[in-house]
């Protein structure tokens, strides 16, 4: 926790920063033209927020390093304190155990926070691993004062540093490797090797190595940056295959033949420091800042450039309050857009975009002398320590005001990149970019930017109109239209109408100028605008206005295209028909396949291009209703009517024979066409249409009248036959052909009397009209119903019997044969009756023997215990058992009848209780079997009951056969039966 004085100091600093913010914000007072209003509900926190760490060291702090949330500090002379920042309460203090006068010169901590190197002033170096408590000496490093270490980020891990570079105060660069694993028998030191790979000089003399940075870039290239007091060296190269231990020596050897690439500055303050900024962990750094004598050299790192990594390099010269002879800067840290410079009493933050000091924080004297500033690359915190205290800076939303700087530099792409989540700032950047483009006469770019801003629409539109930049105005309107929401219908309507007018004006101007190429490009652009689905609803709702605009410019082609886009095909087809372009009209019809339009325009098209129209109809197939096309089929013109008729017949035939249309109107129309223009096809159509009235789809009466009017007698005969008017068919067929009449006479097969009558008509016609006796005799042989005596009255008196001799003899023979057949049938009937009487007599005398041990087939009790029935099959039942077996199998009618007979039998039993003889017939009850209320005796009732119950064996008779599909257990009693088994 910070002390009260520290909190007071922090509040004062926040107050100062708030005052600076208020002074900056006064320039933006008021409501801007952008439409956005900046309203902050609470004070915005500063970018650099300092906090004093709640830690009071027991001794003065000499050195401090932080990396990967691991903090190590040297306290006093011989103490080392380690703190895991994720567990700040668990501190680990280690004594170095040095008895001589050596002090800690520098501390070095690798990026993983696992390996700590302790450089001593006595030119010795110690090593401590995070997982151990033992400090180990690096014997190979003895004799060198370590100034910097270049860690290996590629191969370093918790137990091994991998190959690293070490810089000394004598300007020598060594390559080394340290392993924290247990020492072997022959190797007790953690340092694996320590070899010199290069040396740095200034003005011909060795210069201390101030900083080392090692990175691996693309294509496995290694990049090494080394700095001295006033020089910055770059080494680039690839490792030699097979050199697993000395991976950097090959890179330095590649640069020995030529001088290494370096930058030098004249001023020298005795040391220098370089820092890097990496946007993400485990990626290459993308910026650097080098603090040296002349100032701070900062820029970008480009690992693609072949000669030098440094790009966009600038030098920030020290301000007047920084004197390198007396007040040297101590340390430097680079962030995304600033570098922090640590002086003896304060920290300055300088923006790398414009070189301005944006933050300055003065430390009080009570905190002690500022010693060093470090940045943790993992946590992102900046640490500053004195002998008595430790501070840290939180960097919050560093990029919040960067967009303003980029905007002032006219680097609008970067400005927009850093204000994407702030629409009010984005609007200001776009407005500034649009104005910049407009002033530089880049009107199209200006229009695109203005369309994305919230500036007044009228102001921008008038601006382009005054500049006479219609193309830019059109671009502005298009972009503005695309940014509107669907519910802003009024604005959309205005912009769509205005753009249509602009396009039409531009097309008219280009057409008059004769600029064909640009005209076609503009027309295509206009067509794309009309067909844009985003504008479809607006164009459809205002299509009458667009039609008026197109008509006012006389732009017929675009009007047709717009009609197609609006699916107003009726207007398009009407236009083509008015201009006698019937093929184009049919093409539109065929393309969009709207049946309603086919029905409307087919009459006109049929007059001029009948063949093409019928082809289109055929292609449409069942999507068209042929009945609705009859007006078009019957709309014949005076010229070319024969072609229309032929095409009409072709389409109707297609409907009947291929689409199997059953509409009566279509078939009747085909009949009329055949009767008038293709009589040869009429009879064939009637024959294949069927001979049953239910199969026929045309009107028989209409067909008969039509054939009769045109004198097609054979077709009339066919229709009469279908109508079953056989007499009319025979009468009419006799006028055509006798054989045709004969085929008609054989049709009424079920009516022999009618058939005979028809054949008599044929015979009379043959005898009386044709006077052909031989044909008349053929009629007798063709019809078995006719006899010679039936046709004799038709012959004249002068005909001799010789013509009928054979027929008469044949007729007499048939009569004799028929008489013989009747005699034989009578004899067979007499014999059959005799056998039946014998069977009846035998059945009356038939009997069966019942043993005393016999049992009922149903209940399995002795049969003789009560009345029973005996069947010929051998089954025997008690009378009541038989009733129970038979009753469920009877129909409802027989069950009712059986109950009625049982009631009557019970009634007769009561009347005859006191008598020993059966009751006379007069005392019997009445029966209703077939005769209503006839009087029956008791025996008759029993006989009727037996006829119902005992007519056949219940196990062997028809009842058993009929019950084969019934379940053994009644479905209604199934659950009850099922539960009884459980």
TrEMBL record:
It is found in: Late endosome membrane; Lysosome membrane. It is a peripheral membrane protein. Keywords: Coiled coil, Membrane, Metal-binding, Zinc, Zinc-finger. Residues 1-21, 906-938 are annotated as: Disordered. Residues 1-10 have a biased composition (Acidic residues). Residues 926-938 have a biased composition (Polar residues). Residues 805-846 form a coiled coil. CHCR repeats lie at residues 621-775. GO terms for cellular component: HOPS complex; late endosome membrane; lysosomal membrane. Belongs to the VPS18 family. This is Vacuolar protein sorting-associated protein 18 homolog.
